[in-house]
Amino acid sequence: MVNPARGDAVPGCSAALLNKALEEPVPLENVPAGLRLRSVTLTRDGIEADFAGRSVTFRPGSAAAA
């Protein structure tokens, strides 16, 4: 896993570009209560987020269940 905070290089991305992209917080919408963000990984297809939680309820028809 690439970890820019640890100083790892991001393929095809300069540190200045990455820092610019992360200047502003990225809001997480429609995350069910009880989940917490564990990690964010850059992939060829975009960004992958890993969440963890206990006793989290997913309700059909909610935007988070889509």
Description:
The chain has 66 residues and is α+β, with helices and mostly antiparallel strands. The chain has a domain at 29-66. Helix content is 11%, strand content 26%. It has one helix and two strands. The chain has one helix at residues 15-21; strands at 35-43, 46-53. The protein has a two-stranded antiparallel sheet with strand order 1-2. A hairpin with a 2-residue loop joins strand 1 and strand 2. The longest helix has 7 residues, at 15-21. It is elongated and about 40 Å long. The mean pLDDT is 74.
Task: Describe this protein with a few key phrases.
elongated; alpha+beta
Question: How do the strands and helices of this protein lay out in sequence?
Answer:
Blueprint lengths: L14 H7 L13 E9 L2 E8 L13
Radius of gyration: 15 Å
Structural class: alpha+beta
| Proportion of beta-strand residues | 25-35%
Distance between the termini: 27 Å
Number of helices: 1
Largest sheet, strands/sense/barrel: 2 strands, antiparallel
Oligomeric state, counting identical vs distinct chains: single chain
- Widest β-sheet, arrangement of strands: 1-2
List low-confidence stretches: none
Mean pLDDT: 74
The topology string of helices and strands comes to HEE
Query: What is the helical fraction, as a range of percent?
Result: 10-25%
Number of strands: 2
- Based on Cα principal axes, name the global outline: elongated
